# Entry
Amino acid sequence: MQLIQSDWSVVSTTLPETLSRSSYTLLYFYPKNDTPGCTLEAQDFTKLNSEFAKKWIQIVWVSKDDSDSHCKFVAKYELSPSYISDPDLLLHKKYGAWWEKNNYGKIVTWVIRSTFLLDSDWQELHSWKNVKATWHAQRVLDWVDQNMS
# Structure
C-alpha cells in the first residue's frame, strides 16, 4: 500500500505501521476522488482535522483511486488528511467497504462509504457504515466527544 502523507510525501506502508503513528485512527473509505459527495465529505473532515488531532486521532482516507488522482484532488480543494491508495481493495474487503452483487448475470460492484475508529492495536472502537456524506464528519466528531472524553 502507498500512504500519501499530509506533507505530500509518498511512502510504502502497512496498516500496522500506519496505525502506530497515532493513538487512534479514523479509516475513512470513500468511493471516488473529485465527485460531489466525496468532495463535500473530504472538505468536512479537513475542516475538523485539528479537532480530531487534539484527541490523538489521525484521519486516513482510503480509496481505490491511484495516488496521482488523489494528489490532484487534494491540491484542487486544499485538503489535508493522509491517504492510502488501495487499488487491490485489500482494506476495502477487510473492513466490508466493498460490495459485489450478481445482477442478472452481471457483476455490479461499489464502495460502501464507511468510517472506522481504530486504536493502535487494531481494535475497532466504533464504525459508521453506508453513511451519507453530508454532516458525516461532524457526526463522527460528536460521537468521539460523547464517548471518548
